[in-house]
Each structure stands twice: as structure tokens, then as C-alpha cells.
Design goal:
The protein is α+β, with helices and mostly antiparallel strands. The chain contains six helices and eight strands, in the order H-E-E-E-E-E-H-H-E-H-H-E-H-E. It has a single domain (about 1-160), classed as NADH Oxidase, CATH 3.40.109.10. The chain has helices at about 1-5, 65-70, 75-80, 90-95, 100-120, 135-140; strands at about 5-10, 15, 30-35, 45-50, 55-60, 80-90, 125-130, 150-160. The strands form two sheets. It has a six-stranded antiparallel beta sheet with strand order 5-4-3-6-8-7. A hairpin with an 8-residue loop joins strand 3 and strand 4. Helix 4 crosses helix 5 (about 100-120). The protein is globular. Bound molecules: flavin mononucleotide. The site of flavin mononucleotide has 7 residues, from strand 7.
């Protein structure tokens, strides 16, 4: 979670993070589905960047729902955790207008790569997931799919 959006410094109104972002706007929210982690109950959590804390938004087993919404991909079913990012469109578009359509995916790639580096350093496997049903994931998180829309996922877990 530190690799995704950990705060590294303050610059004026901006809280700088572990990944670069156009205009230091960090146009994402980070969610986490915890499935197989000792001492953390199964459920969907929101990552509170400022407090470096997980906030449970839906307790329970959502493995089937997540797997189905990811086209039945076994890597999702078997994952210990799935990080789910939403794009906050206006956070970037307000400043960059149409250019935000480039910056948001660029920013996202940096964040995802950080997770892969951190996972590798910790001896875990990870797999970025771009193939999923947008509407199903938006509904799972309770986001509107317009101003806030699921953009990308990554699974993390033990290597076989
Ligand atoms: C944008 C993007 C979307 C991806 N979506 C999926 C996916 O839905 N399912 C999957 O198994 N792998 C997915 N991958 C992982 C690629 O298949 C993988 O990175 C590629 O096969 C190269 O393997 P490596 O990363 O282990 O070197 C995705 C990767 C990227 C960058």
C-alpha cells in the first residue's frame, strides 16, 4: 500500500506520493479486496491515503463476484488480495481538460508498476488485470462509473 500512494513529502497543498503524477493531482482512489490474509477479515476496503489506513466498506467474501467480474480469471480467484483503482476524472480534467485522458492512464501505470516492484521485493507474485466488466466493478465498489470509475486492478499473492 505504501508503494501505491504512500505520502513522501508535502509541497504546498500537495501531498507527494511514492509514484509520480501529472500536476501532483493523484487522480485515483485505491481499494483493496482482502481474501486470504491472516488477521485481516475478508472484505472490500478503501485505502485512506492521508491516514495510511484501510477502511472497511463491505465486509465479507466477494471472491465469486470479483472473479466473475474479471471474466472468471483464475488469477483473481486465487489471489490473496486484489487492489482496485478508480480514476477520479475531474481531479485531473479540471486542470488538464482533454489531456487528462492521457495523464490518467500514464499515472496509473506508474502506480501499478510500484506494486509489482514492492510485491517482487517481498517475494509475492502479482498480475495487473485490465480485462474486467466495468459496470460490475463499479457496482461492487458503489461508484458511479462517470466521475469515479474503476480503471485497473492488480492481484497479489503467494507464488506457487
Ligand atoms: C494493461 C495491462 C492489462 C493486463 N491485463 C491482464 C489480464 O486481464 N489478465 C492477465 O492474466 N494478465 C493481464 N496483464 C498481464 C500481462 O498479460 C503480462 O504483463 C504479460 O503477459 C507479460 O508477462 P510479465 O508481466 O509476467 O512479464 C495485463 C498487463 C497490462 C500491462
Amino acid at each position: 500500500m505504501w508503494g501505491t500512494q504512500g505520502i513522501t513529502a508535502r509541497a504546498g497543498i500537495h501531498l507527494l506520493r511514492t509514484a509520480p503524477s501529472a500536476g501532483a493531482l493523484y487522480p485515483f482512489e485505491t481499494y483493496l479486496y482482502v481474501d486470504k490474509v491472516e488477521e485481516v477479515p475478508k472484505g472490500i476496503y478503501h485505502f485512506n491515503v492521508a491516514d495510511f489506513a484501510l477502511e472497511c466498506i463491505k465486509a465479507g467474501d466477494f471472491n465469486q463476484a470479483l472473479t466473475a467480474a474479471s471474466l472468471g480469471q483464475p488469477v483473481v480467484r486465487r489471489a490473496a488480495v486484489v487492489i482496485i483503482w478508480t480514476a477520479m476524472m475531474l481531479r485531473c480534467m479540471t486542470k488538464y481538460r482533454d489531456r487528462a485522458m492521457r495523464y490518467i492512464p500514464m499515472d496509473m501505470g506508474h502506480v501499478c508498476q510500484n506494486v509489482q516492484l514492492a510485491a517482487t521485493a517481498m517475494g509475492f507474485g502479482s498480475c495487473p488485470i485490465g480485462a474486467f466488466y466495468d459496470d460490475d466493478f463499479n457496482e461492487l465498489l458503489g461508484v458511479d462509473g462517470q466521475e469515479e470509475a474503476v480503471l485497473y486492478l492488480i492481484t497479489v499473492g503467494k507464488l506457487k
